């Protein structure tokens, strides 16, 4: 299908999301669900399947050629990190399509709730909660041992799939490749801060995550040693202000 023909189809259907910079996005019955600093996220139907679309948008303050290069680099890194995570045994949404010209990725839509919602609801039984926390530690250990740094580990970017309660990791938009213990430690520290800010009333949940990480990671020793240093630096910063 040519671009002009696709654009004509889009103009005849109100169910398409039309972006003025990228005139055709093949998502039907779409709804904006998130507006971030780097991208907009929509959900709808793509090729007859429930889908999520993530479109990175240009930054006007950057030179156009630099902006285009950075956007494409981050787009490719996000897709590669997701595919690599799946090879490492970590569940992520399936990538359905990548449109480089539109800076857009189509994913399968995972039905379920975020870990943030699951923990905040208070509906989890102690055994189920512990199993979930252990699954988080195991998934992060697999990513780190495989050289994948998520970059934005929060309980909002971890999903509990409705079909089988499996843990699914989402939003690799800030991901990178690294085997450096410091990078892994910062990843863990970001998640600890998320637990501290969002789930302080639930007790020391992150300790169960760390225990599982230590159990499942082959390289846990240098990472957790560095994590202790990163944690200390963070506390000093908080005290100084």
Q: How far do the termini sit from each other? A: 57 Å
Do you know the CATH topology of the largest domain? Transferase(Phosphotransferase), domain 1
In N-to-C order, the SSE pattern is HEEEHEEEHHEEEEHHH
CATH first level of the largest domain: Mainly Alpha
Helix content: 40-55%
In the CATH hierarchy, what is the superfamily of the largest domain? Transferase(Phosphotransferase) domain 1
Q: Which residues sit in consecutive blocks of at least 5 with pLDDT less than 50? A: 1-24
Q: Which descriptor suits the 3D outline?
A: globular
Count up the helices. 7
The number of domains is 2
- Major pleated sheet: 5 strands, antiparallel
The share of residues in extended strands comes to 15-25%
Order of strands, widest sheet: 1-2-3-5-4
CATH architecture group name of the largest domain: Orthogonal Bundle
Residue-averaged pLDDT: 87
Number of strands: 10
- How much is the radius of gyration in Å? 20 Å
Structural account:
It holds the Pfam family Pkinase. Belongs to the protein kinase superfamily. BUD32 family. It comes from Elliptochloris bilobata. Its main location: nucleus. GO terms for molecular function: ATP binding; hydrolase activity; protein serine/threonine kinase activity. With 241 residues, the chain is of the alpha+beta class. The protein has two domains: 106 residues, Phosphorylase Kinase, domain 1 (2-Layer Sandwich); 129 residues, Transferase(Phosphotransferase) domain 1 (Transferase(Phosphotransferase), domain 1, Orthogonal Bundle), CATH 1.10.510.10. The protein is 46% helix and 20% strand. The protein contains seven helices and ten strands. A five-stranded antiparallel β-sheet has the order 1-2-3-5-4, covered by helices on one side. A three-stranded antiparallel β-sheet has the order 6-8-9. A hairpin with a 4-residue loop joins strand 4 and strand 5. Helix 4 packs across helix 6 and helix 5 crosses helix 7. The N and C termini lie far apart (57 Å).
């Amino acid at each position: 299908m040519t671009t002009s023909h696709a654009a004509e189809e889009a103009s005849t259907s109100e169910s398409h999301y039309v972006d003025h910079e990228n005139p055709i996005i093949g998502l039907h019955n779409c709804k904006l669900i998130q507006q971030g600093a780097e991208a907009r996220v929509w959900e709808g139907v793509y090729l007859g399947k429930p889908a999520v679309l993530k479109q990175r948008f240009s930054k006007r303050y950057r030179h156009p050629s630099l902006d285009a290069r950075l956007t494409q680099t981050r787009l490719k890194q996000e897709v590669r990190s997701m595919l690599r995570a799946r090879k490492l045994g970590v569940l992520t949404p399936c990538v359905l399509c990548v449109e480089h010209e539109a800076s857009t990725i189509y994913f399968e839509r995972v039905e379920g709730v975020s870990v943030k919602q699951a923990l905040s609801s208070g509906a989890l039984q102690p055994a189920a909660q512990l199993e979930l926390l252990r699954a988080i530690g195991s998934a992060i250990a697999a990513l780190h041992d495989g050289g994948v740094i998520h970059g934005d580990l929060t309980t909002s970017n971890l999903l509990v799939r409705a079909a089988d309660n499996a843990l699914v990791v989402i939003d690799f938009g800030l991901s990178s490749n690294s085997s450096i213990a410091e990078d892994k430690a910062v990843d863990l520290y970001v998640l600890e801060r998320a637990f501290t800010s969002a789930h302080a009333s639930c007790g020391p949940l992150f300790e169960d995550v760390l225990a599982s990480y230590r159990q499942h990671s082959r390289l846990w020793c240098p990472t957790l040693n560095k994590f202790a240093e990163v944690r200390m630096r963070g506390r000093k910063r908080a005290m100084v202000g």
